[in-house]
Amino acid sequence: MRITIKSLVLASVGLMAVSGTAAADSVMEMDGGAGKILVNEKNMTLYTFDKDTAGTSACYEACATNWPPLMAAAGTMAKGKYSVVARKDGSMQWAYDGKPLYLWVKDIKAGDMTGDGVNGVWHVAKP
Predict the structure, then answer these.
(1) Which of 11, 21, 25, 33 is the most exposed place for a label (fewest CB within 10 A)?
(2) How far apart are the C-alpha atoms of 56 and 20, rounded to whole Å?
(3) What is the residue-averaged pLDDT of the chain?
(4) Is residue 48 a contact partner of residue 123, using CB atoms and an 8 Å limit?
(5) What residues does each domain of the chain span?
(6) Cβ distance 110 to 46 under 8 Å?
(7) How far apart are CA 99 and CA 121, in angstroms?
(8) Ordered DSSP codes for 28-95
């Protein structure tokens, strides 16, 4: 039997959907204590950046090292309020309502939200 990355991701999303709503290949809505938040397939909190403009990331170099973009696989199909935006290097990044989505390197385990409010410009992504 041949197992592909896509089938593993889809299986992960299917298993995670038990506790949240699958919204896109790599993004889910979960209860975060203070309401619904967006998380990746590993239940790691996703964030938005105030310096981004609709459909465009402003986070590169050192910023992207600390705030890794939530990358979308080539050919990913967006739906609803979820979209993919092109980065400078041609790679694709997930966005919600036009806002690119990021992880935070200091979040160590699922459920951590230590990036919320960093420098007054980073916020937990909410649906």
Answers:
(1) 33
(2) 27
(3) 83
(4) yes
(5) 5-124
(6) no
(7) 13
(8) EEEE-SSSEEEE-TT--B-EEETT-BTTB----THHHHHS-B-EE-TTPPP-TTEEEEE-TTS-EEEE
- Which burial class, exposed, middle or buried, applies to 35 when counting CB atoms under 10 A from its CB (0-12, 13-18, 19+)? exposed
15-52 per-position pLDDT tens digit: 333 333 334 557 888 987 778 999 999 999 999 999 99
Strand-pair partners of 85: 93
Q: Residues with Cβ < 8 Å from 55, sequence gap 6 or more?
A: 83, 85, 95, 98
Question: Taking the chain, what is the end-to-end CA distance rounded to the nearest angstrom?
Answer: 37
Q: Enumerate the β-bridge partners of residue 47.
A: 102, 124
Residue with tokens 């949240």: 20
